[in-house]
Amino acid sequence: MTSLNASSRARRPPDAWTRLSRAALLWGFAVTLMRALRAPNDWAMAHWLISYQFGPLKRALPGTLLHPLLATPFGSAHTEQIIVVVCSMILALFCVVYLRLVFSVLGDSGWSAESVLLGAALATSPVVVMAGHVNGYFDEAFFLLTWWAIHLVFLDRRWAGALALSAALLMHESVFVIGVPLALLAIWLSTPRETDGARARAGSLMPPLRRMLPLLLPVAVFGALVLHQRSIQNPIATREALTEYLARFSFIGHDRDKRVPKALTTAFGDYVQTQGPRFWLRFLRRRYCVEILPGVALCLAFAARWLRGQRSRAWVMAAGTVTSLIPLSLLAIALDTSRIWTYTLVTATTFVWIVSRTFHAPEPRARDSALFRWACVAVVGINMLTTVELMDLAVERYSAGMRMLLYVPVVAFVIFVLLARRAPTDAAPTA
User: What pLDDT does 254 receive?
Assistant: First the structure.
């Protein structure tokens, strides 16, 4: 096992199969993104206006970084436009990096038929629909920082990765159950072990504790956030100050100038008390079990097939399953049920990426499975046929008929892969 699996493989220029696969996946991704793409709403933009001038509030880092620009005469005159541009740039970067992660996994597997079909499932995933819908929220930003932190772990720059995770936590506290477990998993799997009978620096299932020490930094940041939320002396006064400030901006409506300050000054424990009793109701929603869990299971199945023959396979799969599903714990403190459910697809996709970076792919014939290919087709069909439950009573842009018409190229490509798939022996890693 190695932490630089992708870079250790021979690369070759993309062939016709690879170019066709990329084109089909890009088309499917674009259609899926457009299903719910919207400009930042006033709830999201209100968050970008909150900075540390009101104290060490949670989620105030983005507003603090943007405040110097908004404080200029130009920024004061074009505040809304600047926020929209910044949010659009972050969303665009998220799309690029997400696709890069997917293509990285496909490249490490030699663009086999199985991996390409998995790519089709990921390109049409509800994650992509929700990404366009939550444009302006901090989700894309903290996912980017999480992926960057994991990349730094692979480069053996764990303290830098911990700093990136800490910054992500100051953007949104959800990173504690999303980014931190993924980084811990990446540190564990990137620890050198015994290979081919030769002893490496570590041979046990657990890495040296000193390799985990950097993660104490984001844990400490999260602890400080929790303590501060509990120690706010006069939350009502803070809310009133925030409300008065947000009321200056005409584009903040629908009582967001009151609701956002309340959200930022409510302690985590209070959220658990009020939202915790609804956890099982949200967790057992049938539509999410149908729309989301098959995609998560597909990612886990792909990782399990990748790990075939590895002695630590059971431990890795157990850790990956927990890491993929742990974001659902947020259902105990938050209202955005559909948004939280899609987090599991991001964590499962990231788990697959981590596995592909830290373990050599098995022999192509060992990955060949008609059952897995048809499972991918089923998930792609679910992604295309079902609609994602959006927030703010919003609905998707396309009707069912228009949606299927736009997905015709992807359907044709999937059929082509099933009928004329590349033989396992022809698969070779490409960039």
Answer: 79
Burial of 97-136, coded b for 16+ CB within 10 Å and e otherwise, reads bbbebbbbbbbbbbbbbbbbbbbbbbbbbbbbbbbbbbbb
> 61-70 and 79-108 helices cross at what angle (nearest 10)?
130
Tell me if 343 sits within 8 A of 323, measured CB to CB.
no
Taking the chain, what is the end-to-end CA distance rounded to the nearest angstrom?
20
Whose CA is closest to 335, among 288, 276, 394, 406? Answer: 276
For 346-404, the DSSP string reads HHHHHHHHHHHHHSPPPPHHHH--HHHHHHHHHHHHHHHHSPP--STT---SS-HHHHH
With cut-offs at 50, 70 and 90, classify the pLDDT of residue 309.
confident
Q: Contact, 260 vs 242, CB < 8 A?
A: yes
Q: Rounded to an integer, what distance in angstroms lies between the CA atom of residue 296 and that of residue 6? A: 23
Q: Which helix (H) or strand (E) holds 28?
A: helix 16-34
Are 304 and 313 in contact by the 8 Å Cβ rule? The answer is yes
Q: DSSP of 187-248, one letter per residue?
A: HHHTS---BTTB--S--SSSPPHHHHGGGHHHHHHHHHHHHHHHH-S-HHHHHHHHHHHHTT
Q: Is 290 exposed, middle or buried (0-12, 13-18, 19+ CB in 10 A)?
A: exposed
> Which pLDDT band holds residue 271 (cuts at 50, 70, 90)?
confident
Q: Look at the block and give the residue holding tokens 């220029």.
A: 13
* Angle value at C-alpha 219, between 216 and 224, nearest 5 degrees: 125
Residue 380 to residue 124: CA distance in whole angstroms: 7
CA distances from 185 to 188, 357, 418 (A): 5, 12, 34
Q: Residue 198: beta bridge partners? A: 195
Locate the domains of the chain by residue range.
22-192+204-422
List beta partners, residue 135. 137
Contact 324, 353 (CB under 8 A): no
Instruction: Report yes or no on whether pTM surpasses 0.85.
Output: yes
Whether the CA torsion 289, 291, 296, 299 is positive or negative: it is: positive
